Amino acid sequence: MIIKPVVLILLGLNVVNRNKLPTHGPAILAPSHNSHLDTLVLMSLFPLRMIHKIRPVAAADYFLANRYIAWFALNVIGIIPLNRKQVTRKTQLFEQCHKALKQGEILIFFPEGSRGEPEKMTQLKKGIFHLTRDCKPVLVYPIMMHGLGRSLPKGEALFVPFNCDVIVGEPLSCTSHASALVQEIELQFNSMRSLCSTYRVDEE
Q1: Burial of 68 (0-12, 13-18, 19+ CB in 10 A)
Q2: What is the rounded CA–CA span in Å between residue 192 and residue 45?
Q3: Which single residue of 7, 119, 125, 181 has CA 20 to 30 Å from 111?
Q4: Tens-digit pLDDT string for the chain (204 aa)
């Protein structure tokens, strides 16, 4: 209830293919990542009755490091903390994610991992493959988000209102090879970027 009005009032959103968002779980949203606003904007696209089912997967070492941020992240945003520095076994690392998917929840999982420079794509990681492999037949929804890196860049505490794009891609099934799934997501990202009203050719 807090997130929706903040996003709708302060940001100019251009949303394409919103009707392709999943209406129920289990499902995984795989958005590009430039800003903390990415998560809030994505959650705002779902009806209030579904918000409790939308679970962002976030780095425990960042979001649980400060008790105030931890309280907000766990109790308001509803993150699933990922202990990526202390756990190396994939089954243990994604245990809470798998549990959430089995309960019919919709995860937000950034295939780039951390935020990078504003509006610059970084190499996709293979974690999303390990997340889906044990939860077939969950679908993965690539989503291109553009402009939010200028609204709230990494390292900034106050955001500046900007127009932003959200393009929802075609859902993907889990493949038998990590590189194939990553390549499919990357292809859709590159295709969807040209649909962004805030995209500039000189960004490449």
Answers
A1: exposed
A2: 18
A3: 7
A4: 566 666 666 677 889 999 999 999 999 999 998 887 889 899 999 998 999 999 999 999 888 888 999 998 999 889 999 987 776 677 788 999 999 999 999 999 999 987 767 677 888 988 899 888 877 789 999 999 988 776 665 666 556 667 789 999 999 998 878 999 999 999 999 999 888 888 776 665
Give the integer Cα–Cα distance in Å for 23 and 93.
27
DSSP state of 17: S
- Residue 199's nearest CA partner among 112, 121, 111, 109 is 121
Contact 167, 195 (CB under 8 A): yes
Q: Which residues 6+ apart lie within 8 Å of 72 measured at CB?
A: none
Compute the distance between CA of residue 204 and CA of residue 188 in angstroms, rounded to an integer: 16
Give the max Cα distance, the chain: 44
Which residue matches tokens 């500046």?
A: 160
Length reported for the chain = 204
